[in-house]
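Tutorial, part two.
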Amino acid sequence: MGKNYKGTTPKVLTDVPKRLFDLVSYFAQKYSYKDCMFAGKENGKWIKYDGKKFSELTDDVCYGLLKIGIQKGDRVIIAANNCPEWNILDFAIQKVGAICIPVYPTISHDDNEYIFKHSEAKAIFVGNKLLYNKIEDIITNIKIESVFSIQKIEGVQHFNELVELGKANVDYELLKNISDGIDTNDVATIIYTSGTMGTPKGVMLSHRNILSVVEYLCPMYTIDETHDALSYLPLSHIYERVVQYCRIYLGVSIYYAESIGAIVDNLKEIKPKHFSSVPRLIEKIYSTILRKGSKLKGLKRMIFFWSVNLAGRYDETGRNNGLFYLMKLKIADKLVFKEWRKALGNNLKLIITGGAAINPKLVKTFSAIGVPLSEGYGLTETSPVICTNSMVTGKLKAGTVGEVLKNQEIKIGDNNEILVKGPNIMIGYYKDEDMTREAIDEDGFFHTGDVGTIDEDNMLHITGRIKEIFKTSMGKYVSPALIENKLTESQFINQVMVVGEGQKFAAALIVPNFEHVRSWCNIKGVEYTTDEKMVKEKVIIDRFRKEVDKYNKTLGDFEQIKKLELLSKEWTIDDGYMTASLKLRRTRIIKDFGDIIEKIYAE
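Running the prediction step on this input gives:
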């Protein structure tokens, strides 16, 4: 075992509440002057909830939950897309001592059935008719006692009915006695991790687990009550949910994006100062910008790509940006980058990113245009944040996930596995003590399953997952994630999965960025027919071979991609090839694309 690492933090917060639901009254009192705590769009209009209104509705729902028989320790499911009602339910469930179980709207029927049965949920709140249709048979078969909808569904009790039931059954003393009896170490939520293989695991997190992250994460960001934030990541994922708790503590007004497709329009409309994201959206924004730039002609095109290349060389730490470079950057800003910022609402100061590795070039580029990316790392079991890059501490480095939070410690264990210890570590897996003991060792360190290294600046580098690393027939170990992250730097590549377990060499299944391929075909005078036909065209295959060879030069001999196959359809959550947190389900892909993989390795 190597040495243990602890991080730095700029200040210690002394007024963070002890239970998550206490954040509601904290916001209502401290930021009473604000007209918006949460906002959702209905029929083209933003409906805002200030702290007072939100707090009152939360208590109304508490009284309603008590009336329908919800008691301490009962499990209550929320299966819905983001909306203010989601947050009201989250806090109300906690405040009556029950346990909130968020469920991804996009997970499979089998996973839904497993979670509903395993959790033995007493009540469920479903978002809309589409989601209800997916799970109606499960609800009927396992006889969940209470079912409510957030949007109106014929034959299903509506959220407003629970509110009215609560208003008709106010019992202040009862609610106070129950909430006063809830301890900071009580289970607040059980989050079922989708995982890349196997059965979902129910991660039990206490109020203290999560608030220990809020306490030490908030000072790492330049965020305060002057911020409006756009939220689009699912609240069913611990990442966005904990970011929301941080925002509430900091007094941020939170606006929910209408949909993924409406994000750019919502950015222009709300003009937020920050938002949190996964790398995929940032990559798509960047690709869209480059695609528009490629349509320019003459001098404008030359200036555009000169600026792009300039931004890609930016030193996000600020140490090595010389005066001459900064002068050129100022010119590029006036000519090009100011238009990029306008497209993002013209008010962005920060993008928080996590969930997967992000291309270091994007970190440099966005930092250069004045919208720094702060990358972090963690797992559901760690509530979730372990590390983060921080503008406040000056700990910023592209290609790293930052420095460990000060109230935690990490060390690099056997097989270079990242181990972490701190108040953020889960209570355990629900109904599975054996798996809990396997995950948390006798010294209290959680074994992440991720492989990494600590550099000279105490910054953590993630290099792969132990279960994903494979061994070739030549005896060489290959980390597919490292190669995949490198290849997806290409504008031509949308998704990629590296294979080669037990084979002589590594190969890749590649889903092209078809928009970029179309643009390339147009420039080169190649007729574009359909995605299905183009991936079989020799001219396209040769172009991808050239692109992959370019990245092969940065890899070791045993890591280089010797063969590739182009696929015509993107891997998605709906078809079961991606987890809800947008990670590849490798086992499923290898199984379903086995014939293609066999073809690659056929002599």
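Residues 197 and 449 are 13 Å apart (CA to CA). In part three we will examine how such features are distributed along the chain.
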